[in-house]
Amino acid sequence: MNMALLPLTPNLLPLFVAIPLGSAFIVSLLGKKLRGFSDTFSNLATFSLFCFSLLSLLLIKRLGTVVYKVGGWIPPIGICMVLDSLTSFMLITVNLIAFLVTIYSISYMERYTDKWKFYTLFLLMLAGMNGVIVTGDLFNLFVFLEIGSISSYALVAYGVEHEELEASFKYTVMGSIASSFILLGIALLYSYTSSLNMADISRTLAQGKGSQVVFFVSVLFLMGFGLKAALVPFHAWLPDAHPSAPAPISAMLSGVLIKALGVYALARIFFNVLGMTAISSSILMVLGIISMVLGGLLALGQEDIKRLFAYSSISQIGYVVFAIGMGTPLGILAGLFHLFNHAAFKSLLFLNSGSIEYATGTRDLRKMGGLTSKMPVTGYSSLVGSMSISGIPPLSGFWSKLLIILAAIEAKHFIFASIAILVSILTLAYYLKVQKLAFFGELRDSLRGIKEVPLTMKLSMIALSIICIFGGLLLIPGVQKNFLSLATEVLMNGNNYAQIILGSIK
Amino acid sequence: MIYLMCLILFSIGIYCILVKRNLIKIIIGIGIVEYAVNLFFILLGYRAGGRAPILDEKQVVQNMVDPLPQALILTAIVIGLAVTVLIVSIAVRIYEKYGTFDITKIRRLRG
Question: What is the interface pTM, i.e. ipTM, of the complex?
């Protein structure tokens, strides 16, 4: 292929926001009138986004860190968009899952009326997530965060039944409090550094003292983004909100939304803007461990399959935050790797639960049994997902959990490492419960008539299980050096972020 | 002093969200929290006796109000409006389904 034909310029960056925003507009305009238009168009949009996110890897390779000046204003006065390796890593994760989820939605969303409204909200949510990832400006980050959050509040209530509305109300109340905390943090940071550009703030903070202001701001951000990431003291909305949404949205929320808006923003701000200190590192680690244990224990007692998966998300996010919080190169690498893997297998599992609901009409584990005989694709792909998330070798989850535990031992956190091992056994326990109750054993008489789900749903489940099986290949030295290690380096650079960004403007 | 007023306003909003049982009162609480933050942000840019930062040629203005927070808060107000509209419409649908605004009676989700 001729490389010159590819749009490898900084102008690639705004497309990550412009494509989903523009398609949301077009889908809402034409989707009602033309039948089938919203399906095709949304899938095209997410597919092109996925291709562009892969291209961003090439762009970095050629140009290094890329800064796009919005409207031609020079940062720190104007807003800028930044593409570095961490951005590219997150973009690939988000857009890959989004693409597979839109394929799944083609058949699944037939159950609901007004599919085009679903796609409009979906694309808006995607625009918010991509925006949070590419932006280099703090207030801009807040705006995109709100775009993503508001559309996810609406998507949780999409079914407009009793539970959905209740969950969405709870989610909206907690989400808007979190946003207020984040805005307050931004206000304080602005008054202290007189800048909103992340690189500029980072530079000012690296020179000055004022540790008390920075400490207070860190607490505010930890509350705000911690709530979006569903870390344990702030997790109460997640087990209601994620199961209530339609299955593709549960997959997006658990798979990527809590990571893009929560973990990514938290990591970016703590490492690159505020600067990581020993206190914030240990706070993140402790919160991670608590989330891990509590999420796992609560998941064990659930009978609703989607609710179980939601609690399991809290537990797995605990792993990611714990690993990134360690702040060592191996820890961050392991955390990012687990973030990618969790995005793959948790979306797979939520799509499986959607298929079960599609075929049988129930989410209650006690009413299922022997589903593998009737729904082989769903059965086996969920087996792959469950084994991967519980860390059975050679699936992807095993490698990332192994790395997390190794990183903890390397950093001499022996107690935390042993807790991580115990929680991993706990994870295996509740996923075995899912497998045993839902897929193995006798088929119930009431379920004799069920059929396997349509082709498009099968397709995305198969694609995700392939990612789960071969996810470990990302650790092969050649691949790792170009993908995960580069992303780790961005976080390890800490306050040098400022020099890199401001240096590449001139 | 004036910042303390913002803090009090913020606390009233949080109190309202945590203690009140009526959905509408919770929504009002969210509004109060948002406005407390907005007010705080605006006040950060305020200079006593300052004037609008519009310059003529050769004119030197010593004391200007920082215009950036105003621009930002305009955006934040619009976002707040969107959240309010969404949450009020959810509350209306909840009232249609459950026939009440009392959150102690709206409890289907557990665990």
Answer: 0.93
